[in-house]
Amino acid sequence: MQDFRNRLFIVTVILGLAFLVLGSRLWYLQVLKGEEFAKFSLENHIRVERIPAPRGRILDRYGKELVINRTSFDIYVIPKDVKDVPYLSVSLSQILNLDTGQIEKDINSALKKKSFKPLLITKDINRDQLAYLEARRSSLPGVIIEINNLRQYPHGVLGASFLGYIGKVSVAELENNSKVNSNDLVGKTGVEKGWESSLRGDDGYKQKVTDALGREVESNLFQEDLQNKKSLPGNDVLLTIDIELQRAAEEVLGNEAGAIVAVDVNTGEVLALASNPSFDPADFIKGIDSKTWSNLVNDQSSPLLNRATQGLYAPGSVFKMVPSVAALNEGFINEEESVYCPGYYKSGNSTFRCWKRGGHGWVNLRSAIVKSCDVYFYKIAEKMGINNLSKYMTAFGYGSITDLGIEERAGISPSREWKQKRFNKPWYKGETIVSAIGQGYVSVTPLQVTMMTAAVANNGKLLKPALVKEIVSYDREEKFKHAPIVSGNIPVQKRMLDLVKDAMVGVVNDPGGTGSGARLKDMTVAGKTGTAQVVSLDNRSDKKKHMDHAWFTSYAPAEAPEIAVTVLIEHGGSGGAVAAPIAKKILEVYKKLKEQREADDNV
User: Fold this and answer.
1) Which residue in 247, 359, 406, 549 has the most C-beta neighbors within 10 A?
2) Fold of the domain built from segment(s) 48-239
């Protein structure tokens, strides 16, 4: 009983002391400091200032900066703190060279909604404007100057098609991402969008005491209760791209519309991904204006289209590796069997012409690939049928996106089922025949063609292409490191694949090979040309838009493959005459860069 009384006494004392401390604090705040607090609350505010986190950098495979940040001074207004909207609107328009009516309209609109939220007036004011604004802050209540980060592109437009651009966050993006503020810029396309979650940092905040004009004031009253949180920068994203090879690809494209893709055949890492025409990502860093945006989206040359991953084209004869592998592996042909090409092929009442009107004479698999004889492939396609051809198209990755991580299209890998579903019509034999030479319904992206070529080069592994090599945090902690991923294995015997590879060497190096324009003295190149019809022969004119698309796909060195390069030139004409020499230049640059880096490593 005595123990209970002792415990009760102790509890009573503790509670009494607690109430004494609390009462003392209340007396201090309400009586002793009451008048001071009342005056403080009328004249000052506790405001939460956001500390924007710097966005992560984007670098090439060797650490060269492709996208970085620079400081931006941005002007915001807290609508509820504005004393005179018309006066403030005129003042800001004069200082910042903006439209008075638009500023006034925006502030009045914000006053009807969440008037305590900062309203963005403009981004990235210059130093003179900043100094002038600071000097007049006392007469401009409600104005806030916030230090932010804007994207900067050290290499200008280089790589814009895959780097992408940023833009103001949409309502949907705002709802799906708790880290994003209504005035933020987020990735809209390319790497900026695909790796948004890695690039975006974690914003911090600072609570501060401000006067009625929004100026920070010193006060000890709430200092101990003010909270701060540091911002954490976004992660750096290191790409698989070699920016020097990328530069060479974009330079060699020049003014031609088209694409160049270069891939490491053993890892799937994309070394270059060029698309032309392109755009300037600097147009988007502050939020693109409506006129510039309208010009871009209405431009007939489609500069916002990444032709390497989104452009869909008939592949023409670069596609002939697919029926070659299919017919060999399924036993419909052998390497010795010959077909006579008189320049055309008859099937029923239909006639299908070879690109060489006089014909190629007798050809076997190797010579048919070397000379790109259409008749040979017409015949084997009719023998094996669309089901077998479709099976190998799918195995090589056609008809599906590669899952690169940026915008891309799947293309069309036609089949009986596809046509029935798409057109509600049966499949015809003639459609199989033209599919074998990459015409008809077949449509592909340059990236898909490159991955097919890489699969041939590496003995049948269809690799998942990679655009990101590594992701590291601001304090250099590794968040991700690429390792090769095999999407599938081509169902073909190595001996059969070797026959196709040998023929591809002949395309470039044999007398009469259609790809001789890609031949190198000190490196053996294997390749395949393609000239894809845009309109039928009967409807052609001399206009460039009716010219064939020029293709060339290749890998090298043939003996120990390292790199696959595909070139597409829209309406370029002959693949052998136009695209093959371009691939040669890319391979020369690749070899030179490799030798230079090896020499530097040995120093």
Assistant:
1) 549
2) Penicillin-binding protein 2a (Domain 2) (3.90.1310)
